[in-house]
Amino acid sequence: MSSTIADAPEPIAPRSRLTVLAGPTAVGKGTVSAYVRDTHPEVWISVSVTTRAARPGEADGVHYRFVDDTRFDEMIAAGELLEWAVVHRTARYGTPRQPVEEALAQGRPCLLEIDLQGARQVKESMPDALFVFLAPPSWEELVRRLVGRGTESEQERTRRLETAVEELAAEKEFDVTLVNTEIHAAADELVALMSSRRTTDSESA
After folding, report:
1. 133 touches 22 (CB < 8 A)
2. Three-class secondary structure of residue 79 per DSSP
3. Is 1.20.58.100 the CATH classification of the domain at 13-204?
4. Rounded to 5°, angle at Cα 132 from 127 and 135
5. 139-149 vs 154-169: helix axis angle to the nearest 10?
6. Is the pTM of this model over 0.85?
């Protein structure tokens, strides 16, 4: 994708470089974002902060910033979060504001991988961002992925699936839908959308 990156900064309004990726639980948002991070270094990806415990294989500061409730409360009070929400009625997640603003000021293409509630908050403050909904090939496949990863209790899986019904119903709120049939293909299509958005904005600037 290096051919899509201009040698000189493009005259694009910073917010037009922001892409928000959201979708139901277990759809593969984190895996798609990780593939983009590994293969497209030109894309800056926000690291969310959360009060939940780390899952096996997750590294603090890479996949998430893991904090306790006291620190999360401090971040809210200090206005350090661009958005935050209670997800699946358990843990809190949020997007640190300063790193996003700094990346946008530098003119970098930015990706936020967040939940539906967070996406709605960002849409209120940055409506000209590109909002992408990541959808599963089918409901059955979504259930298979959630059960297959084995990181939640049966009670937690039930709670997440109840939330997923609401999340899937919100697809119409987004600008574009990507069906995550295969991780690499979905990630490449996401980056292509981001590049297309940047080119369009540059031509209209």
Report:
1. yes
2. coil
3. no
4. 145
5. 150
6. no
Look up residue 75 and give its amino acid: M
From first to last of the 205 residues of the chain, give the pLDDT tens digit: 333 333 434 433 434 489 999 999 899 999 999 999 999 999 999 999 999 999 888 999 998 999 999 999 999 999 999 999 998 778 999 999 999 999 999 989 999 999 999 999 999 999 999 999 999 999 999 999 988 887 788 888 898 899 899 999 999 999 999 999 999 999 999 999 998 865 455 555 5
Measured distance CA(53)–CA(42) in Å, rounded: 30
- The tokens for 173 are 């709120």
